[in-house]
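$ run holo --ligand "zinc ion" --emit tokens
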Amino acid sequence: MIFPACDPPRYRLGFGLERHRSCRANLAEAMADRGIAYEHLPDPINFFQNTPVRPDGTIAYGGASVAKPGDKVVLRALVDVIAVASACAMDLTGINGDRLSDIRLTVHES
Ligand SMILES: [Zn+2]
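-- output --
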């Protein structure tokens, strides 16, 4: 929760790319019919991102995830929720290792 989603400005300003997929755009598209303005979209919980806080308070960025294939997070919603997930599209730094990968989501109803 300490690192924002990748977004179109990051790809445009950092890499000169106008049409690169991004987590924030994925969220905006998924939430388009919910009436939530782009600027009000929440920042993500980065379950598998490796962005530790250094002793000086800065955030280390660009280290590959330490998650292994098959690692998982199980969440239990105690109230009705809208959950959106994005497999990060950042392929221009090392933050996703040497390749992008899909994620699998399973929703169980109690
Ligand atoms: Zn991303």
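-- notes --
The chain is about 15% helix and 0% strand.
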